[in-house]
Design brief:
The chain is mainly alpha-helical and about 120 residues long. Pfam families: Cor1 (PF04803).
């Protein structure tokens, strides 16, 4: 019986230590599971934030492209208008030059005819 009590006592002690160890392991496992869930929630929240930021970036990029297209069309219209205006000014200047040349020719003819008369 003494031997039985000694072994029983040792077995009981080891069993209690093992049970405490199992309980501690379960507690640590629960803590780790909670930490994992918290990390998972944080990660999901960050994914949502990053997704929203990416959408904003894409929207801004689309707006920039649209603005660039509008700006390019405006620039083309501006250039076209300027070229048209320059052509008109050149036509007016050509007409002035022709009128002035004709006027000079008329003056020369007048002088020539007057010199013939006098």
């Amino acid at each position: 019986q003494k031997l039985y009590r000694e072994y029983s006592q040792q077995f009981l002690t080891l069993f209690l230590e093992w049970d405490i160890s199992v309980q501690e392991t379960k507690e640590e496992e629960e803590k780790l599971a909670n930490l994992f869930r918290e990390q998972q929630k944080i990660f999901q929240a960050e994914r949502i934030v990053q997704s929203q930021r990416l959408k904003k970036i894409v929207n801004l990029y689309d707006q920039i492209l649209k603005c660039m297209e509008v700006l390019e069309k405006d620039h083309e219209h501006f250039l076209s208008d300027e070229q048209s205006e320059i052509r008109q000014e050149m036509a007016i200047l050509q007409d002035k030059i022709i009128v002035e040349a004709l006027h000079n020719e008329l003056q020369m003819l007048q002088k020539f005819f007057l010199s013939l008369l006098f």
